[in-house]
Design a protein that fits this description.
The protein is 50% helix and 4% strand. The protein is mainly alpha-helical and 134 residues long. Helix 4 packs antiparallel against helix 5 (108-133). The longest helix is centred in the last third of the chain and has 26 residues, at 108-133.
Length: 134
């Protein structure tokens, strides 16, 4: 029996208040489908979600679940996937952040989400400016 190595995709530029590295469940599931890996293990989201509301799980938990299911995870891929490069925030994340502001303005949770999203927002603006200038 041969396995295809699965690279765990990076999450967006947001992190839970703990600062732990997370992966989007939808992207992890898609990576498993693309690799034609059949999983008989449940991928459980954590309680915290980014402003978009898309479920996430801790990266290390994802690695552990895959390992226990017999799915090889290439450490090189994991290291490259956990780089701290800022990714531009998308329209859905921006919209969710505005909704979160309406519902949770002034709370620690909102400020932590806003702080995490700021880098993604700035990266998006910088990318748009560079595209306009070239």
């Amino acid at each position: 029996m041969s396995y295809q190595t699965v690279a765990i995709p990076p999450a967006l530029g947001l992190q839970p208040p703990s600062g732990a590295d997370v992966v989007l469940l939808a992207e992890l599931t898609q990576a498993l489908v693309d690799a034609k890996v059949e999983m008989k293990v449940m991928l459980e989201p954590i309680n915290w979600t980014p402003p978009s509301g898309r479920p996430v799980m801790y990266r290390q938990d994802a690695i552990d679940v895959l390992f226990k299911a017999g799915v090889p995870v290439d450490p090189g891929e994991v290291v490259s996937a956990t780089s701290n490069a800022v990714q531009p925030i998308d329209d859905a994340e921006l919209e969710a952040l505005l909704d979160m502001r309406d519902e949770m303005a002034g709370t620690d949770s909102f400020y932590k989400a806003l702080d995490g999203a700021l880098d993604g927002i700035l990266a998006r603006l910088y990318a748009a400016e560079r595209q306009t200038n070239h």
